[in-house]
Design a protein that fits this description.
Rossmann fold, alpha/beta, 2 domains, six-stranded parallel beta sheet, about 35% helix, about 25% strand, binds 2'-monophosphoadenosine-5'-diphosphate
Length: about 270
């Protein structure tokens, strides 16, 4: 039985053990997957101890994605772009390989819901670590343009600059945002505190989608705002399941089916 886990702080409410437990059951993989609380200043030691005890790989969540990035011997292209790692893999030679599956998780969730990206105008709200993690996979879908809008304007500008070699991407403040967009993705942590970035009324084009990378039992404030303005709504639950499926595939070379796990996870929120 191979051992996997998710490291975070806090970690109690993580849904990853539920998701990976279900993937393992469904694909009959001989593995365990647990949640591990690492001390804020002790991630690297926690990872080393896990590997010494036979651990084969792990997911990494807040606040350790940067620490995980720093300790890897080898990194995927998308992890280098994201400057973050959410998936650790112990290689045959004992070296640590790092990947990030958050961005591809978002793109796969959008595909699952038949949300087109190619040739579309996409607005991304926020310019923190969560947004940095999605830009490479997003630009790989060839949208006509990606606009990154952030409260701290300089951060949006710097982020756009860092990805400009991959496509048409612009950074700015909320005030300068000009709709209509086909897809608007909320990657700010404002939802956590029930806040909403100051957005213009005319953000959504005909048939547009509003996507919140957060999720919960109730729609986020961003989705509550977007619904009456005509957007079709998606929260980040599917992204969580799809990023997990990508990590699972990286470890086990088996692709789990996500539909039933989406249902299970949605039920677990109530
Ligand atoms: P994460 O890992 O979730 O991306 P982060 O790197 O701290 O966390 O980034 C948080 C993002 O949410 C930032 O874009 C932040 O805006 P600033 O760069 O201006 O700080 C944004 N954010 C947080 N609270 C917000 C609020 N109340 N209104 C608008 N944006 C907010």
């Amino acid at each position: 039985t191979d051992r996997y886990c998710v490291f975070g702080n806090p970690i109690k409410h993580s849904k990853s053990p539920l998701i990976h437990g279900e993937f393992a059951r469904q694909t009959q993989q001989p593995m365990t997957y647990t949640a591990v609380l690492a001390p804020e200043d002790g991630f690297t030691d926690a990872w080393r101890a896990f590997v010494a005890g036979g651990g084969r790989g792990a997911n990494v969540t807040v606040p350790f994605k940067g620490d995980a990035f720093a300790l890897c011997d080898t990194l995927s292209y998308r992890a280098k772009r994201a400057q973050a790692v959410n998936t650790l893999i112990v290689g045959g030679n004992g070296r640590t390989y790092g990947d990030t599956t958050d961005g591809i998780g978002l793109v796969r969730d959008l595909a699952y819901h038949r949300v087109p990206l190619a040739g579309k105008r996409v607005l991304v709200l926020g310019a923190g670590g969560a947004v940095r993690g999605i830009l490479e996979p997003l630009l790989a879908e060839k949208p006509s343009e990606v606009v990154v809008a952030n409260r701290t304007v300089a951060k949006a500008e710097q982020l756009a600059e860092a990805f400009v070699d991959l496509g048409r991407i612009y950074g700015g403040g909320f005030a300068s945002v000009k709709g209509p967009f086909d897809v608007v993705i909320n990657g700010t942590s404002a939802s956590l505190s029930g806040e909403l970035p100051p957005l213009p009324e005319t953000l959504f084009g005909e048939g547009a989608w509003a996507y919140d990378m957060m999720y919960g039992a109730e729609p986020t404030v961003f989705l509550q705002w977007a619904g009456p303005r005509g957007a079709k709504l998606l929260d980040g639950l599917g992204m969580l399941v799809e990023q997990a499926a990508e990590s699972f595939f990286a470890w086990r070379n088996v692709r789990p089916e996500t539909a039933s796990v989406r249902t299970l996870l949605r039920q677990s929120l109530n």
